[in-house]
Amino acid sequence: MGVAPEVDKTLGDFVSEFNSGDSTAIAALFASTDDVLGIGTDPKEWWRGRATLMRVLEAQMKEMSGARLDISEKAGAGSWVAAQCSIGMPGGPATPARLTIVCTGDGLIEHFHLSVGAANEDVIGQTLTT
């Protein structure tokens, strides 16, 4: 089973709207329940509930005006998709990142997680098999 077509479309729309800076269009991609959860790279970026998440996404999209998100590889099944990507600010380097989206049956985002990887040695002080 591959990624559901509506979920794949939602991922594409999410990237497109992020790159255009259109927070209203991004908001339309999210489910309208308080179960929506967004997680970002900063330790304080854990947003529960649609109203909270939309408030923060609108503010951050203004703060990151011109930022670019590019997908390089994706995998998933049914209602979820994970992507290797890069994110960068205008004139700056692109940073490798990971994006995971979980959708409702109708393809609206219930959960997303955007993260930047950190080496195991930096996080737990130990090398692990990778």
Short description:
It is built from 4 helices and 6 strands.
Helical fraction equals 25-40%
Low-confidence blocks of residues: none
Shape: globular
Q: How many alpha or pi helices?
A: 4
Query: Strands of the biggest beta sheet: in what spatial order?
Result: 2-1-6-5-4-3
Overall residue-averaged pLDDT value: 96
CATH topology: Nuclear Transport Factor 2, Chain: A
Order of helices and strands: HHEEHEEEEH
Q: How many structural domains can be distinguished in the coordinates? A: 1
C-alpha-based Rg, rounded: 15 Å
Please write the CATH class name: Alpha Beta
What summary fits the major beta sheet? 6 strands, mixed
By DSSP, the count of extended strands is 6
Compute the separation of the termini in Å. Answer: 26 Å
By helix and strand content, what is the structural category?
A: alpha+beta
| CATH architect. name | Roll
Strand content: 25-35%
Please tell me about this protein's structure.
The protein has four helices and six strands; from the N terminus they run ααββαββββα. Helix content is 31%, strand content 32%. It is an alpha+beta fold. The chain has a six-stranded mixed sheet, with helices on one face. The chain has a single domain, classed as Nuclear Transport Factor 2, Chain: A (Roll).
Set out the fold topology:
Blueprint: H1 5-20, H2 23-27, E1 37-39, E2 46-48, H3 50-63, E3 68-77, E4 80-88, E5 94-103, E6 109-115, H4 120-124
Parallel strand pairs: 1-6
Antiparallel strand pairs: 1-2, 3-4, 4-5, 5-6
